[in-house]
Structure to design on (309 residues):
């Protein structure tokens, strides 16, 4: 008697003819009698046959193995609405305590204080204090190229205030206004009407430092330096003002008119105290040296100023 094959007994369950007929009627004969899958042995690794394997491989029966389809990719994990958010804290989702405000930069203990505007610095200065402020002034770039700041010079009490434009080369060297040939001509003109810078005339400039190459003053330089002149006028309280040159006239009168349209008549300058000072406009001595024919008109301007009592 032949021993039963364990593989066959495991693959085909034994049923009697009546059970087979009953399973056939129910349509379950094939499902019921299908061989059960062989349990995998833990010690044997299962061979995976892919469609790239060699066609020479075959099953024990000699038939070529059935192609194995690639496994379908696993479905992507559904992203959590919380995990999709950025790692950092955001509105409505904060991890940990609220962020600390950024610290304010500390000011160095030895940091220089902000410079006081010239108009504010000279507000209550007397004449000596004003002179010191002019000498130490750095309100514009002209301070970097000067030798001396030219505050002004003259007699007190002041009957006439003579206002020029800016120091030239000789004024920058000596620190005094209207020296050299222009100064000599101005002294002669004043002497002709009985005035002297040593006795009753104070001479100053709108700009206290020499512009490079004696160029015309720039608007920002005039704006930075004008408060010194305004304070000089308030302290000296002149009886009249003789303005020499276009830039000085336009600065003091607040106009852009030419010398030809401004000279020959008396203007009025109103001080902060409400006092009105007669202002007479004339040509600059340097211009008269280049144009001697204009000296006659300058002489008329001097006589007009002398009549203002």
């Amino acid at each position: 008697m032949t021993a039963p094959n364990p593989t066959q007994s495991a693959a085909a369950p034994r049923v009697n003819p009546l059970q087979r007929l009953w399973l056939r009627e129910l349509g379950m004969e094939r499902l019921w009698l299908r061989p059960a899958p062989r349990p995998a042995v833990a010690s044997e690794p299962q061979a995976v046959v892919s469609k790239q394997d060699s066609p020479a491989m075959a099953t024990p029966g000699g038939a070529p193995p059935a192609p194995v389809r690639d496994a379908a990719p696993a479905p992507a994990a559904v992203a959590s609405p919380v995990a999709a958010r950025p790692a950092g804290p955001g509105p409505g989702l904060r991890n940990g305590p609220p962020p600390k405000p950024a610290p304010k930069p500390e000011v160095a203990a030895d940091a220089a204080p902000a410079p006081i505007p010239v108009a504010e610095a000279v507000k209550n200065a007397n004449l000596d204090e004003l002179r010191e402020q002019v000498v130490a002034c750095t309100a514009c770039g002209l301070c970097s190229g000067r030798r001396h700041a030219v505050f002004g010079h003259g007699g007190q009490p002041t009957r006439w205030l003579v206002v020029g434009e800016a120091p030239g080369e000789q004024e920058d060297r000596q620190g005094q206004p209207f020296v050299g040939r222009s100064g000599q001509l101005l002294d002669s003109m004043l002497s002709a009407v009985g005035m002297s810078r040593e006795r009753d005339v104070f001479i100053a400039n709108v700009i206290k430092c020499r512009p490079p190459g004696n160029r015309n003053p720039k608007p920002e330089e005039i704006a930075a330096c004008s408060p010194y002149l305004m304070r000089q006028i308030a302290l000296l309280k002149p009886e009249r003002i003789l303005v020499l040159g276009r830039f000085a006239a336009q600065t003091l009168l607040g106009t852009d008119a030419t010398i030809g349209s401004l000279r020959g008549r008396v203007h009025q300058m109103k001080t902060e105290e409400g006092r009105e000072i007669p202002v007479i406009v004339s040509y600059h001595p340097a211009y008269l040296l280049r144009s001697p024919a204009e000296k006659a008109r300058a002489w008329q301007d001097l006589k007009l100023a002398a009549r203002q009592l």
